[in-house]
Amino acid sequence: MRVSYLGSSESAAFIAANSIRIPLYSESAKLSPKSQPSKDKSLDLNTLCIQNPTSTFFVRAQGESIAKVDIQTGDVLVADRSLTARHGDIVIAYEHGKMSVMILELKPDVLLRPKNKAYAASAAPVVTSETSSLEIFGVVTSVVRQLDRG
Question: Which residue ranges does the record assign to the Peptidase S24/S26A/S26B/S26C domain (predicted)?
Answer without folding.
Answer: 38-140
